[in-house]
Amino acid sequence: MTRTVHIAGGGVSGLATALLLARRGVAVEVHERKATGGGRFAGGWQVLENGTCRQDALAEIAALGVESSFDTIPARHAIFLDGTGRVFEVASREPFAYFVRRGGGAGSLDDALGRQARAAGAVFAPPGEAPEGVDVVATGPRQADGVAKEVVFSSNLKDTVAVLFDPLLTPTGYAYLFCLDGHATFGVAQVRGIAGLARARDAAWARFREVFGAFRVERLHDGGQFMNFCIPAHLSGRDGRWYVGEAAGVQDYLFGLGNRLALRSAGLAADGLLGRWDQRAFLERLRQPMIASVALRFAFERAGRRSFAALCRRAAQGDFRQLLVRLQAPRPALRGLSRVIMAIWRERRGCRHAPVCSWCRRRQR
């Protein structure tokens, strides 16, 4: 490829695509509206999931061609709170997740990808809108299929990974409190019932304070983000452009985690731009896991307090990562159930997702 590839968006998927192309000798120019990519994350902790397949996430990233030069904290222990007031400790031998910082700054995932892309020869345009006719769209969510409200702060709370599953407080979602090395992120994420998100956040915060005590909260930064989910038929759209990450709707629908899938989509799109599209890898590593997550999302939204209490109790009785891998494996029965649910949930009035969307859920109106 002799021409310059223009990429709109300087988040994880856009930067990873730029890096992988530049390392193969392709001229790349990245266009980002803000001075730093991933700005909406405000430097908070985000999850790089490690429980959807047996391959370790960092090993997959290394195989993709991305150096793990960003700060990562492996998670092997967590505390689950259910809606009945009980507290469960879960653990795994191998990390069930890695915590990374998003939103720029030294050590963040965005900063590391940007540095590697520049070192490989990628060019970064001055902050501003991308020109017409870009080759790769990596501009983040196109519509709100879920919303998270977060607070990033400093604290004296000891290292803590805690998640609250209570469908009465956080319907169709969950609340989380991550404090690592004195840097904390608290938030509530929901897929439906968005109007009650502020009330859910207040209730969840009170529950965490009740369990963990009056820990110090300093240097508050309120933030939030949209979650975007649709199942792409391909990563090359009907308009001739490639779509990666959230711009393509790439996201796990069960927990709303997307960093690993965003990097995976970047690798597939980079190969596609070079004429090496791997349809089998797209189906097995992106599309099929996303389809399977629809059935899991259906079960999540219909589980009551007793069901979540039973799930928390089961998670505390064995290796949590192994449980996650078994639960989320895209086996044929799970994909078949998902397709039934997809037929019921399908958006029938047109969607606002990218022109790669083959299915999305009917929006709340």
Beta content comes to 15-25%
CATH topology of the domain at 5-66 and 102-141 and 228-359: Rossmann fold
Work out the helicity level.
25-40%
CATH superfamily of the domain at 5-66 and 102-141 and 228-359: NAD(P)-binding Rossmann-like Domain
Number of strands: 17
CATH class category of the domain at 5-66 and 102-141 and 228-359: Alpha Beta
Largest sheet: 7 strands, mixed
Mean pLDDT across every amino acid position? 93
Structural class: alpha/beta
At CATH's second level, what is the architecture of the domain at 5-66 and 102-141 and 228-359?
3-Layer(aba) Sandwich
How would you explain this protein's 3D organization?
- Helices cover 33% and strands 23% of the residues.
- By secondary structure, the chain is an alpha/beta fold.
- It has a domain at 5-66 and 102-141 and 228-359: NAD(P)-binding Rossmann-like Domain (Rossmann fold).
- The protein has a 7-stranded mixed β-sheet with strand order 6-5-11-12-13-10-14. A 5-stranded parallel β-sheet has the order 8-2-1-9-16, with helices on one face. A 3-stranded antiparallel β-sheet has the order 3-7-4, with no helix packed on it.
- Strand 12 (173-180) and strand 13 (183-190) form a beta hairpin.
- Helix 1 packs parallel to helix 5 (259-273), helix 5 (259-273) packs antiparallel against helix 6 (279-302) and helix 6 (279-302) packs across helix 9 (332-345).
- The longest helix is centred in the last third of the chain and has 24 residues, at 279-302.
- It is globular and about 60 Å long.
